[in-house]
Amino acid sequence: MTTKEKRFPLSLSSVVDQREAGRGDHFGRSASTQTATQNARQGANLAIRVSPAVNSEKKQAEQSAPFASPLVSDGVRRAMVARVAQQGVSDALVLAALQAIPRHMFLDSGLASQAYVDASLPIGHHQTISQPYIVGRMLEILRNGAALDKVLEIGTGCGYQAAVLSLIAKDVYSVERIKALHELAKNNLRPMRIANIRLHYGDGMLGMPQVAPFDGIILAAAGMEVPHALLMQLKIGGRLIAPVGDRHQVLQLIERVSVHDWNSTMVENCHFVPLRSGVI
Ligand code: SAH
């Protein structure tokens, strides 16, 4: 690791990667449906299609995602977004962000053909890239129709959700406890040159007190309960969305209503990898 990389926050634009070169196109092949339990790259077309009502937000998303190149993936991704919308996600900015981020670029080339199936897929180290539907659903709940300023993500994984978040929030901080995945996310995100993501290697259960409070906190891994440190790092009026549980998991929405009060709502069943303490 270079001295530059050790600094926090790590600026993605501070590093350069040519990984894009040589990536093949993996689209148009058949993809089978998979579920989270069954499962432990190249050009991106960033044309964002949204309704006129969100034109200014669309513009913001387009400006934040300057990694356009020609694009076989556009149509398959549009179909993926349509399926997410059919399942009930209706926030146009979230759908536009899902359309804008090239999910195939976060997967191994062997799995890229399945990138636009609405399923979680392995990313190594017994972890998975989240299912597009659940990413959309959680971000819609987190945003609740309002502009998001500072957001914390626990569980960077391959960096996909952080990239989607970068189009709907002003600043994204993302923590990963597995060093190899933290590095993978850096490599995946680098060619996209997204300026508003800061990646941090550490135990997300502790949050990031040095940059708190957050308008929004999103967990991509399930604990038996939401860590207290994260509740304390939520702004008053802020929202936290997290999967909780063991074999049976539920999405929990927590809103901080005052210094000492939080409201909790159980939203729907879900399936995530476990939240674990410490770093490896
Ligand atoms: N956000 C990812 C999902 C990654 S899977 C996506 O876009 O698809 C969940 C991730 O949470 C795993 O990489 C796992 O290592 C990580 N994780 C689990 N416990 C954690 C903790 N305490 N702190 C930070 N990351 C954690």
Spell out the blueprint of helices and strands.
Elements (H helix, E strand, L loop, with lengths): L2 H4 L3 E2 L43 H10 L8 H14 L5 H9 L20 E4 L2 E3 L2 H12 L4 E7 L5 H7 L2 E8 L2 H11 L7 E5 L12 E6 L8 H5 L1 E12 L3 E8 L5 E9 L10
Parallel strand pairs: 4-5, 4-7, 5-6, 7-8
Antiparallel strand pairs: 1-6, 2-3, 8-9, 9-10
Helix pairs in contact: 2-4, 3-4, 3-5
Mind summarizing the main beta sheet?
Answer: 8 strands, mixed
Strand content: 15-25%
List the helices and strands in order: HEHHHEEHEHEHEEHEEE
Uncertain stretches? 1-55, 57-70
How would you sum up the global shape?
globular
Q: Helical proportion?
A: 25-40%
Radius of gyration: 17 Å
Count of strand segments: 10
Which structural class do the helices and strands define? alpha/beta
End-to-end Cα distance, whole Å, is 16 Å
Number of helices: 8
* Spatial arrangement of strands, main beta sheet: 1-6-5-4-7-8-9-10
Oligomeric state as shown: single chain
Mean pLDDT: 81
Name the hetero compounds present.
Answer: S-adenosyl-L-homocysteine
Characterization of the model:
The structure is a single chain. The protein is globular, with a radius of gyration of 17 Å. The chain has helices at about 5, 55-65, 75-85, 90-100, 130-145, 160-165, 180-190, 230; strands at about 10, 120-125, 125-130, 150-155, 170-175, 195-200, 215-220, 235-245, 250-255, 260-270. With about 280 residues, it is an alpha/beta fold. Helix 2 (about 55-65) runs parallel beside helix 4 (about 90-100), helix 3 packs antiparallel against helix 4 (about 90-100) and helix 3 packs across helix 5. It has eight helices and ten strands. The model is unreliable at about 1-55 and about 55-70 (pLDDT under 50). Helices cover about 25% and strands about 25% of the residues. It has an eight-stranded mixed β-sheet with strand order 1-6-5-4-7-8-9-10. Helix 6 (about 160-165) links the parallel strand 4 and strand 5 (about 170-175). The protein binds S-adenosyl-L-homocysteine. S-adenosyl-L-homocysteine binds near residues 127, 175 and 277. S-adenosyl-L-homocysteine binds next to strand 3, helix 6 and strand 5.
